[in-house]
Amino acid sequence: MINRLLLGFACGICVCVPLLASAAETADKNPPAQEQVIQPELDRRDVKLPHIDVDDIEVGFYVGTLSIENFNSQSVKGLRLAYHVTEDFFIEGATAKSIISDEFFRSRAFPITGFDKQEEDLTYHNISLGYNVLPGEIFLGRRWAMASAFYVIGGVGTTKFAKQSHSTFNFGGGYRILLNDWWAVHLDMRDYVFNSDLLGQNKRTNNFEATFGMTVFF
Amino acid sequence: MRFLIFFLWLALCAFSVAHAEEEYARVQITDPYIELRSGAGRGFPIFYVAERGEWIEILLRKTDWFKVRLANRKEGWVNRAQLETTLTEAGVQTAFRDSLLTDYLNRRLEVGFAWGRFEKDPVLAARVGYALTPHLFAEFSISEVTAVFSNSSLHQLNLMMVPFSDQRISPFFTLGVGRYKNSPQVTLVNAPEVSSKNANAGLGVRVYLTRNFLIRGDLREYMVPITDNRVDKFKEWTVGLGVFF
Question: Distance between CA atoms of A154 and A133, rounded to whole angstroms?
Answer without folding.
Answer: 13
